[in-house]
Design brief:
Layout lengths: L1 H18 L2 H13 L14 H17 L5 H24 L5 H33 L5 H21 L1 H20 L22
Helix pairs in contact: 1-2, 1-4, 1-5, 1-6, 1-7, 2-3, 2-6, 4-5, 5-6, 5-7, 6-7
Length: 201
């Protein structure tokens, strides 16, 4: 059961990395320092003062950057691979009762995939907003992503299984609304009941 919870915790944090790379790392650093979660010995450094400060500064810069029009799209090119790496690292760092080979294999396959999926949806949503609203709605999307990252990270740490359920639900809804968005049907010329010919005589 403990192993299952640690996997769920890792996947929840990986999903948070898909929203924002450094928010879950900052939350993770605070949680480890407070004794609310454990990591493998190789990642004890996340609770250090240096790590906390670095994650805090990086989080502020990342969040602020997404409020600058068109810069947010450029940030996605860097954030996408970074989110995948972060998703793998956070997943592997919290799975404690497992051999290193299985731990990192699972982290790469599951944690990396979850972070990639969430990041792909956020990128698609931002691109759609950039071209349909000329970026005017992008700050709203940026706020929702930052809140989503914080919410997912805290939920994963406090209620790991609920975090996994939230990942599935949020991912399914986002995929439906963003990636599989159906175009509106074109209006039928001539109105209802009309004919293709001219007016009746």
């Amino acid at each position: 059961m403990e192993t299952l919870l640690s996997i769920a915790l890792g996947l929840g944090l990986a999903a948070a990395c898909g929203f924002r790379v450094f928010v879950p790392l900052l939350v993770m650093s605070v949680a480890v320092r407070a004794g609310h979660m454990d990591v493998i010995p190789a990642f004890d450094w996340v609770a250090s003062d240096v790590a906390l400060v670095c994650f805090g500064v990086a989080t502020l810069l990342e969040i602020a950057g997404y409020y600058i029009p068109w810069v947010d799209n450029l940030l996605d090119t860097v954030a996408t691979p970074a989110a995948v790496v972060a998703g793998i690292l956070v997943t592997g760092s919290v799975i404690t009762d497992m051999s290193p080979f299985l731990r990192w294999t699972l982290a790469a396959l599951a944690g990396g995939a979850v972070a990639t999926g969430v990041q792909a949806v956020t990128v698609a949503g931002r691109q759609l907003s950039s071209f349909t609203t000329l970026g005017l709605a992008n700050p709203v999307i940026a706020t929702l992503e930052a809140v989503g990252a914080l919410f997912m990270a805290v939920l994963a740490i406090t209620l790991p299984l609920a975090g996994v359920v939230a990942v599935v639900v949020l991912f399914a809804v986002a995929m439906r609304r963003v990636l599989f968005r159906q175009p509106r049907a074109a209006a039928v010329p001539g109105g209802s009941g009309g004919s293709a010919g001219g007016p009746p005589t």
